[in-house]
Design brief:
Elements: E1 7-12, H1 19-29, E2 34-36, H2 55-60, E3 63-64, H3 77-91, E4 97-101, H4 105-113, H5 123-136, H6 138-148, H7 150-155, H8 161-174, E5 192-199, H9 202-218, H10 221-227, H11 243-249, H12 255-278, E6 283-287, H13 292-302
Parallel strand pairs: 1-4, 1-5, 2-3, 2-4, 5-6
Helix pairs in contact: 3-4, 5-6, 5-8, 6-8, 9-12, 11-12
Length: about 300
Amino acid sequence: MSSKSKYLICIVGPTAIGKTALSIKLAQHFNTEIISADSRQFYKEMCIGTAVPSQDELNAAKHHFIQHISITDEYNVGRFEQDAIAKITSIFKEKSMVIAVGGSGLYMDSIVNGLDNFPKIDSSIRQKLNSHLDNKGLHHLQEQLKKLDLESYNGITLDNPKRVIRALEICIGTGKPYSSFLNKNDTNRNFKTIYIGLKAERDILYHRINKRVDIMMKTGLIDEVKSLQHYQELNALNTVGYKELFKYLNGDWDLNFAISEIKKNTRRFAKRQLTWYRKNESIIWFNYLTDANTIIKRINEII
């Protein structure tokens, strides 16, 4: 079988839409393995708040890049691209198809298109932005990015200060939007890609998100966050579901308010995910209730 008849099936869509369940059905049908491109699920100390697949789900199909590193490890999208491509290449020695699934648009893009080359930026710009972060807070930097590059503002993980500063330093240092440098490389991958997207009406999606947060609270999210309180300054933990409960545990917010903020911030995250995917015209969208066999039939037609 020639390398060009290898296929990477990318399952995308907003959080809580059902990507994990679909990816397992596809992996079972096509007798293959799953690459997780969800950067929140990489960390072994984070489980409930990142909606890591259950043990039954992990047993149903072989998964890679789920809880494979620690919150104290240095890990970034560049390292992930190298690791993921190495793993995909290895799976392709025996299989003709690999399933990739996840809500981190940048991480999925790194597998499909490779990372982009950015111009070198004067280090004083980053120092100045770090100083603004300390003195004026993340919201100030987010608003600056919104003015300079709306596409990046909608596309990146806004609660990650490193990502916001990286985008801003490119905008300021080059005078051009960070997003204008994306997807400009000519990375040749030895596989074809099929994008499958899951979607739902907004009120249904928001209801699913709210329900998922309630389930996380019932299954022990507070205890999980409490066990990580000592590490709350780490970049990995500056994420929805954890940062709000740190505020509760630190005595800044009451519990009901913290939970309502988790729901609100997760809905905002889903909205940004959808904005990111909208620019990818090759995604074949299906309603989240679509039977897996219908999607399998469509994939087979394309192949």
